[in-house]
Automatic annotation (TrEMBL):
It comes from Nicator chloris. The gene is Dhcr24. Keywords: Cholesterol metabolism, Endoplasmic reticulum, FAD, Flavoprotein, Golgi apparatus, Lipid biosynthesis, Lipid metabolism, Membrane, NADP, Oxidoreductase, Signal, Steroid metabolism, Sterol metabolism, Transmembrane, Transmembrane helix. Gene3D superfamilies: 3.30.465.10. This is Delta(24)-sterol reductase. Catalyzes the reduction of the delta-24 double bond of sterol intermediates during cholesterol biosynthesis. In addition to its cholesterol-synthesizing activity, can protect cells from oxidative stress by reducing caspase 3 activity during apoptosis induced by oxidative stress. Also protects against amyloid-beta peptide-induced apoptosis.
Amino acid sequence: MSALWSVGAGLLLLLLWVRHRGLEAVLVHHRWVFVCFFLLPLSILFDIYYQLRAWAVWRLHSAPRQHAQRVRHIQEQVREWKKEGSKRYMCTGRPGWLTVSLRVGKYKKTHKNIMINLMDVLEVDSERQVVRVEPLVSMGQLTAHLNPMGWTIPVVPELDDLTVGGLIMGTGIESSSHIYGLFQHTCVAYELVLADGSLVRCSPTENSDLFYAVPWSCGTLGFLVAAEIKMIPAKKYVKIHYKPVRGLQKICEKFTEESKKKENSFVEGIMYSLDEAVIMTGVLTDEAEQSEINRIGNYYKPWFFKHVEKYLKADRTGVEYIPSRHYYHRHTRSIFWELQDIIPFGNNPVFRYLFGWMVPPKISLLKLTQGEAIRKLYEQHHVVQDMLVPMKSLEKSIQTFHADLNVYPIWLCPFILPNNPGMVHPKGDESELYVDIGAYGEPKSKQFEARASMRQMEKFVRSVHGFQMLYADCYMTREEFWDMFDGSLYHKLREQMNCKDAFPEVYDKICKAARH
């Protein structure tokens, strides 16, 4: 009873302090208070609900039976929109704050919302080595479903809450992408409800133009209702090698060298300054030295990027074995390194042991509760960007990131980009090795000004025939956007499938210059 009184008194004092300082001041300058006391417990409740739901669906085997019925309901909504005169664009009815993208989509308020409740794993076909899923299945949900069955998918993008639909309509990448490409390149078929209410399946051999046009289209060609993704056999561990490298030229040379090796199952780099990095390579294995196993995903363990930094500070190489699922979600607990700006003491051993089991807060809840003051603060003083550039331009790109942003750590992730039709492909006629340069944090460059600096970055990326991930803030004009991306197939299909009255153009949906 005395403990309850203590907790109650503590909460009362906290509320009095919030009232004295003002809620907005606390949310802006002491956001960790709100996150620790409210968002972390709420995030746990969210996780419990979705885990119980997934378990119930698995036990009752209801997903395959109900999928067709749910798709018909989507078709009925689209046909109803047509009967109403097609007066407004359509979009999914999923609230904007539930998406992992940092953008707040105002179009949800003006467009016709089509409710799409599709969040189940439908079928695991071991013979074809394909898993069929609905678009709102998350990466955490999918790996938890497949791993006990001895399977995984070739590219498991970081962060548990990323969904299949978002990774197809946008894009996704992981440290295995130097072998398998982007997330879209591991998909073998899509099923969509089109603007006329019809249901269409597309693959490289069936409605192939639509298959190649869907990735990066951000839901502006139709509503994704199912996807088929390749599977590969899962193994118990990832044997990971840590290699500190100093000097920008040596970093780029070593990273490029390792990225070209197909015997590496995984390759990634974390840059801690312009001339300091740790390059990691990994291979899948079922055998491990017990003394070298590191279950990095356990709640009390140090954040992964801080663990990696120890090898740099000690100036030593290292080898350890990480359980596969822990490896796939190694950056989840710290949201790469974004959580250190929200909970500055989050990696402290005391916090990890007492409260680490509640981390991370849901990105969707962070968005929902950020308020206009925090949104503007983040927009002007915070960067979350992934730029995809040819590997041959890596050194020049890092120098540009340093000059325009000066944000560290920086994430480096290689990927092979096939010469397929669609919005994103190499300049030449053959596949080319690219690298994702991820900058997440507060820019230290004295000249940084959000709009001007990002436009400068976008100009550079276009000049080397690179691409900007579309989940982030984009400041390009329409002409600049279609100079970066190949819109020929996309525009052709929008014309053929009568999408112009049904969905906004992708530029109007995602670019700051077009949104209102």
